[in-house]
Amino acid sequence: MTQQDAAEQLASRTASLLPRHATVSLELQNLSPLRAGEWSNFRSLFEAELRKAGVEITGGTAVEPRVSITLSDSARGLLFVAEVNSGDKRQIAMLGWNPTASPEEKPRATLTKKFLWAQPEPILDVLLLNSNTQMLVLSASKVASFRLSGDMWTPSATASLVLPRPVPRDPRGRIEAVPEGFRVFIPGATCTGSIQPDLKIVCAPGNETWSDGQVRWIRDRNLLESDSAKGPFYSTAHGLFGGAEGWGSDIAPIDAGKDDACGAIIASSTTDHDNVRAYTTQAAPASDPLPLPGPVTALWPAETKGQVTLVVRNTQTGEYEASRLGLSCSPQ
Amino acid sequence: MRLPVWACLALLSSVPIAQAKAATRPHYGGSLTIELSSAWSTLTESSALSIPITETLVRLNARGGIEPALCVAWQHDPDLKRWRFSLRQKVTFHDGQPLNGASAVPSLLGALKGKYADVSIQAGGQAIVIQSGEAMPDLLADLASPHAAVFRQGDANSLTGTGPFRVTAWEPGRRLVVAAFDDYWGSRPYLDSIAIEFGAGHARPDIFDIPAGPARRILPEGIATWSSAPRILVAITGPNANPVLLQALALAIDRAPIVNVLAQRRGEAAFSLLPQWLTGYAFLFQSAFDVPRAKQLVSQLRPGPISLSYPANDAFLRSVAERVALNARDAGITIQPTSTAGILRLGELPLQSTDAATELARMAATLGVGHIDSSKPDTLYEAERTLLDRVVPLAFLRETYGIAPRVHIESSKSDAFALHLDDVWVQP
Amino acid sequence: MSFRTKVFLSIAATAVLSVWIVAAVVSTLVTQSFERRDAQRTAALVNQFQREFDRRRVEVARRVEAVTDSDDVQRLALNFGGPADTSAYFAEAQTLAQEQSLDFLELVGPDATIISSAEWPARFGYKEDWLTASSGWKSQGVFLKKEDLADGEALGIITVRTVKAGDGMLYVAGGRRLDQEFLDSLPGAEGMRVRLYRQTDQVTRVNSDATVTAIPLRGRDKQLLATLVIENSRADLVALKKYIQGTAAIVGAAGVLLGLVLSFWTASRVTRPLRGLASSVREVAIGNWDTRAAVSSSDEIGQLARDFNGMTEQLVEQRDRMIQAERVAAWRELARRLAHELKNPLFPLQITIENLQRARDASPEQFDEVFRESTSTLLAELGHLKTIIGRFSDFAKMPAPELEPVNVNQIVREELQLFEAQLQAPGGPPVKAILELAEDAGEVPADPDQLRRALHNLVLNALDAMPHGGGLVFRTTRHDNKVAIEISDDGDGLAPEECDRLFTPYYTTKQHGTGLGLAIVQSVVSDHKGTITVHSELGKGTTFRIELKA
Fold first, then answer.
1. Is the full-model pTM beyond 0.90?
2. Does residue B2 surpass a pLDDT of 70?
3. C-alpha to C-alpha distance for B399 and B48, rounded to whole angstroms
């Protein structure tokens, strides 16, 4: 339900509690996580709808009836509670609301970050094709295709992944472009897909290697293994670094040119404040930390040189946000 | 995609390839030890610690919406009297038996008969049809409730479910051990096993409960705490008490000291039966602590001494009862706390789900007051208002647990209501 | 009261009074001795109490000082350097109190808010204004205080210490109970009991078995908080007194018994002969004049008996002589009456016969006529004689009445009817008859003929008493199961002495008549078991009243 719809419905329910052509004092309060800007917008919409419903709003608070509108948060979503108080009499009306998601602000960082897509289901990886006009988003259950329309990605097709094994509890996956389309690597399954004429994908059991034959998934786990490595590991950058103090599990190499000092590794942080940061091959910080709205769930080298695909779970909204990181080597 | 050349060169260097230490990614494996001060008498005890041994056909997500669990799809007739559910394929019980309609019917029937007297369930392959002579608009919420879990009953000490954990040892009141179910249809849990000791057992448990009350437990260094959303209602019930008396009592009791001191801020004051985070409208019930008004109501009643019972051996509730008696005395009501039966009863009513209608219906049933017909917030608000004639809410408490440093909670799926142990992993 | 009773009471009273006086004196002496002893014991206990109380005060001060100096309290005080959150210290007082064996301990913040209370944990957040309102307690050191508890009140020996806390003070108020347990720990003598009564305790004791000494215990503001009551059992004293009383009672009872015996013996010696004498007197009173009293002794009582016997002998002789004289008088009276009655008709008889003789002798030609007249006169006078003799005969042999229910009013009316003609006869004296008959007079068992005869005689008497006329009243009344018939006249009346002799046969105040009329009336009334009385006043009239049983 959009804000407009919510305002209209709420105004209607509120007006039904009032006498015809009533003059009321109005008070609104927000007890929910709705951002200030959106709340202010809703307030204006509601007042307009209330007036349309024939209710006059005065400035004072001593006028009766007194109308109080509270936006509250419940387990089922947001809840509008309208109270109409007149003397000792109180009437209540309620309206549940699950607002449509609003575009997120693009975070600013030292590292350049470009938002691609957000969705409730975990995003495992993102592949840009056709000169970055087509995007494939890999989730645990499907591959979704998007086309760039202006600045917005619009969904164009979806293909479900029929996997022989359940996706591990910490779902991870990788999508890579191949000449005939694309391939998806999930622990326990390898899928081959095509975009033309339609988006199709077929999965078969098995753990094939990827990343130029370097790594493969361990079945039913979120770990990688390699013939050349002892033991499992988490990141495709395992050969460079097993990890360092304060680094998270997600590490991805980034090709920023031959200037090693500019940075070669993007790593997620284990500190309380989720962020990514570029480091040199010597594990020295090469950029300021780029704050993130939540923990990193995927960090892969992108198909585009000099870019890394970043997926973050926004702790506030609960959604997974896919972005592309780039490293600007201009001095700060 | 290929790694850059220089990266590959680095690969060939003599830099030893260390074992990947996942600093943030979950680890698989390991055993979790839990120590709880109050024992569970059943395997389906309501607690903020969620050990999913069984599953339901559908489940409530963090936003209170219904999503598939053991079933993948459902349809119903326009009258909501006939519902058809398609069970998920390739789901097995812990004993290897497949989940199908026939195996699901017994437990479902037992769960639904209480609410729908004439309900019948037919099973056919992976489909089940639930029918009743009356409309069942809240059937999905009922099926998401923990008591509608699908299981196969073995002997008294076993419970065969389909969940990510299976019972390996169960000594009621003493010990519970569960192990990861490798053939779980969803994702195998990170942990290999969980062992719960009731009462002091383990020297250094990974998770231990911190009961409400003033006894300060000195937490060892590095121990973090996890608190659930306020989910345990502490309230005074009096089904046979004069509603005006209960109203006076509600006005006379200052909840802030109970929450801030007796519960050591592990909760919030309660003026409603369900917390604000669950219903969104609980703030409507908030009222000020008003002793003069309480005295006025009491002066009309002139009540004699009233007994207030609390559970024996519960030091926290006993201290609450004594505080209530003190506040009531200021308003002219003589309350006599007792650990035996009383006219009024002080107790804890824990929430079992995140569905407001289900919880309110359960409370209504506990108080012997009919049932709730609708899940609309307006209707629930009115029903709760009526129930408050028989209940004086005092506080919503959180369940708080101490968490050892090696324990990690996969926060992507956890919610404030429960700590899902299938999303917990331990550092080796 | 009989003589025996008087003697008994005298002896008994003497015995009891003597015993009582002795017992009272002994009892008083014993009581005084006990009281002296109790006073000494009480003083000793009070001293002991004071010493123990002082010792406990010192101990309380020491322990509270230890609490104040403890790390926990110091840490709490530091809290107040900034925004203080004392909620975590809610249970602190209980722990500290346990460690120091204190019964009361409260940690109170600078604003007099209770942070933690050992004796009443739920009371956190409430105020103890007395700590900040006045500082009088500072000079008191350790003092008595009444403490509010969840289950009532208690008395405590309390002291207060302070710790610097931010800009104010943290108060540590602690102490120990002053209760029965403390008192029981005091060594006391046997029979002593020490009790503590709080001001609010309502104590009602009615007990004479103990000496009670009450010592007030005051708080810091000199208000009375409790009373120490020391009871010295008087059980021994009571037992002894009871023993004395018991003995006295036994002795007294013995004296009473002795008195009883003596009284019986005395009575038997004195009162029995007197009773015998009294019995003889009663016999004489009812007419047994020849009663003899027993003479059983030679003392005054014996002499009295002998004198009594002499008296009765004389009485009997005098009675016999009187009877004889009355008989002679009665015969004389009868003879006189008879002579009088008979003389009247006899004289005309004599004259008539003499006339006959003369007529025969003097006038033989008139003899037949004279003979006829004379014989008529003779027959009339003989008839008169016959009537007189008939009356005497009737009086001599009046028959027993044949009783039947007789309506009294009807009899009276019938009798009046008989006299109607006479009363209304022209030329006769004007007599007005008045009937005053009670409606409830009813019936009486009587012989109607005899009753009529009696009434007839009374009416005749009444008419005779009113030669010039007057009022004749017939009256009947019923009262107490008796019916009365009254016949009243308003004639000349009778003198009292005449009334006395009225019913004597042959007594009459009239010139004519046999004098038997009223005697007959009396005889009839007597035969009907009734009574007849007369009431008369000279010049006013006379009323005869017959009472018969209904």
1. no
2. no
3. 6
Contact between chains at C150 and B325 (C-beta distance less than 8 A): yes
Asked if C87 lies within 8 A of B265 by C-beta distance, the reply is yes
Judge contact between A97 and A79, C-beta under 8 A. Answer: yes
What is the domain-level CATH number for residue A10?
A: 3.30.160
Inter-residue contact C385 to C342 (CB < 8 Å): yes
Cβ <8 Å between A231 and B63: no
Per-residue pLDDT of chain A (332 residues; tens, 9 = 90+): 788 889 999 999 999 999 888 889 999 999 988 888 888 889 999 999 999 988 998 877 677 889 999 999 888 788 999 999 988 899 999 998 877 654 433 323 347 888 999 999 999 999 999 888 999 999 989 999 999 988 889 999 999 999 888 888 888 999 999 988 999 999 889 999 999 888 999 999 988 887 777 788 887 788 888 777 767 777 776 555 555 666 777 888 877 655 555 556 677 766 555 788 887 766 667 777 788 888 889 999 888 878 899 999 988 888 999 999 888 775 43
The CB density around residue C43, as the number of other CB atoms within 10 Å, is 12
Domain endpoint, select from A73, A97, A121? A97
Q: Between B254, B264, B325, which is nearest C88 by CB?
A: B264
Residue-range domain boundaries for chain B: 31-52+163-228+400-426, 58-153, 232-397
- Choose, out of C75, C79, C89, C90, the residue to mutate when testing the contact with B (most B CBs < 10 Å): C90
* Residue C158: inside a domain: yes
Question: What is the homologous superfamily of the domain B232-397 according to CATH?
Answer: Dipeptide-binding Protein; Domain 3 (3.10.105.10)
- Same domain, yes or no, for C164 and C213? yes
Say whether residue B291 is in contact with chain C using an 8 A CB cutoff. no
Closest in B6, B281, B376 to A72, CB measured: B281
Residues of A in contact with B280 (CB under 8 A): 72-74, 76, 78-79, 81, 94
Q: Which residues from C are below 8 Å from B257, CB to CB?
A: 124-125
The ipTM estimated for the assembled molecules is 0.77
Gap from A96 CA to chain B (nearest CA, Å): 8
Question: Pick from A93, A169, A295: which is nearest to B24 by CB?
Answer: A295
Please tell me whether residues C519 and C464 are part of one structural domain.
Answer: yes
Domain boundary residue among A97, A123, A142? A97
Examine the domain organization and report whether A36 and A149 are in the same domain. Answer: no
Domain that holds residue A33: 3-97
The last residue of a domain, from among C270, C305, C322: C270
Q: Are C434 and C462 in contact (CB under 8 A)?
A: no
Alpha-carbon distance C231 to C236, whole Å? 13
Q: Which CATH superfamily is domain B58-153 in?
A: Dipeptide-binding Protein; Domain 1 (3.90.76.10)
- Looking at the domain assignment, is residue C236 inside a domain? yes
Q: B30 at the A interface (CB within 8 A)? A: no
Kindly report, residue by residue over C39-48, the tens digit of the pLDDT.
787 788 778 8
* Domain-embedded: residue A318: yes
CB distance C87–B215 less than 8 Å?
Answer: no
Contacts of B4 in chain A (CB under 8 A): 253, 255
Residues of chain B in contact with residue A212, where contact means CB-CB under 8 angstroms, are 1-3
In Å, what is the CA distance from B329 to each residue of B239, B293, B325, B383?
22, 14, 6, 31
Taking alpha carbons only, the member of B284, B279, B250 closest to residue B360 is B279
Query: Given B186, B280, B354, which is nearest A73 (Cβ)?
Result: B280
Dihedral, C135, C141, C143, C147 alpha carbons, nearest 10: 60
* Alpha carbons C381 and C372: distance in angstroms, whole number: 14
Q: Which domain holds residue C379?
A: 289-397
Chains C and B touch (3+ CB pairs under 8 A): yes
From chain C residues 135-194, the ones with a CB under 8 A of any chain B CB are 150
Q: How far apart are CA A185 and CA A192, in angstroms?
A: 9
Domain count, chain A: 2
| Residue A46 counted as domain residue | yes
Residue with tokens 């004699």: B304
Identify the closest residue of chain C to B321 by CA–CA distance: C122
- What are the pLDDT digits (tens) for B317-359? 999 999 999 999 999 999 999 999 989 999 999 988 888 888 8
Q: How remote is the C-alpha of A233 from its chain's centroid?
A: 26
Assess whether A85 and A189 both reside in one domain. no
Q: Mind telling me how many Å the CA of C48 is from chain B's nearest CA?
A: 39
Class (C level, CATH) for B31-52+163-228+400-426: alpha beta
